[in-house]
Design brief:
The structure holds 2 protein chains of 2 kinds. Chain A is mainly alpha-helical. Chain A is built from 4 helices and no strands. The interface between A and B is large, with 46 and 62 residues.
């Protein structure tokens, strides 16, 4: 397994959902690769920065709109669904 | 009228995003997590990912970092923004997000992965601009 694939599997690894066939290769690579460790630190810092953001009131409205749009898209309707 | 136009646009974008995200599952990543130029053709990193050398608490205190990541979050496709906001800002579990957005576990993970990846790239840009203004 190469770094490129490791970066694509990072979220799976963090979520504990690596495909069984990828687990050993992923762990082996990351154990030996300081580049991938450094990349993971960046992603972890990004997540921590997001967590530390104050959730501003306008985000509720934006979130509701995003959710409504998302659901409408999945149903193939044009929106206006109650959230 | 403006609000309706915005809603229509959000709906259309949301549909495009959710469709393309669903279709690209399994195959080549439609949206690579890391700029392909950062790898050799055979897939190893060709340069060090920068050390940001600061605690995340310190990072989030800085105005330019906060503004950049908030702008980055706002510019994510709707579906990615919804998932990242719920997971990382509001602290929901993946199960809660799947139920609320009516997406599969794997789709939720793809959206989270892409959203976080884009925001990592945003932070990387901010940190580099600071070093070499």
């Amino acid at each position: 397994m190469m770094c490129r694939e490791v970066t694509e599997l990072l979220t799976d690894a963090m979520e504990g959902t690596l495909p069984p066939g990828k687990k050993a290769g992923y762990r082996f690579h990351v154990a030996l690769c300081p580049y991938c460790k450094a990349h993971r630190r960046q992603v972890e810092a990004t997540i921590a920065t997001l967590r530390a953001l104050p959730a501003p009131p306008p985000s509720d409205e934006a979130r509701d709109r995003a959710m409504a749009a998302f659901r409408a898209a999945r149903r193939g309707t044009t929106g206006n669904d109650p959230v | 009228v403006a609000i309706n136009a915005a809603k229509t646009r959000a709906t259309r974008d949301g549909r495009m995003v959710s469709f393309s995200d669903a279709e690209s599952e399994g195959g080549e990543p439609a949206e690579p997590a890391v700029d392909p130029s950062r790898f050799y053709s055979w897939g190893l990193f060709n340069a060090w990912p920068d050390r940001w050398g600061e605690s995340p608490e310190g990072l989030s205190q800085r105005r330019e970092v906060r503004e950049a990541i908030e702008a980055g979050l706002a510019s994510l496709p709707d579906a990615q923004r919804a998932v990242v906001t719920l997971r990382d800002l509001e602290g929901w579990t993946s199960e809660e997000v799947c139920n609320a957005l009516e997406v599969s576990e794997s789709n939720q993970r793809v959206l989270l992965h892409r959203g976080r990846s884009r925001l990592r790239a945003v932070l990387e840009r901010v940190m580099r601009e600071e070093k070499n203004p």
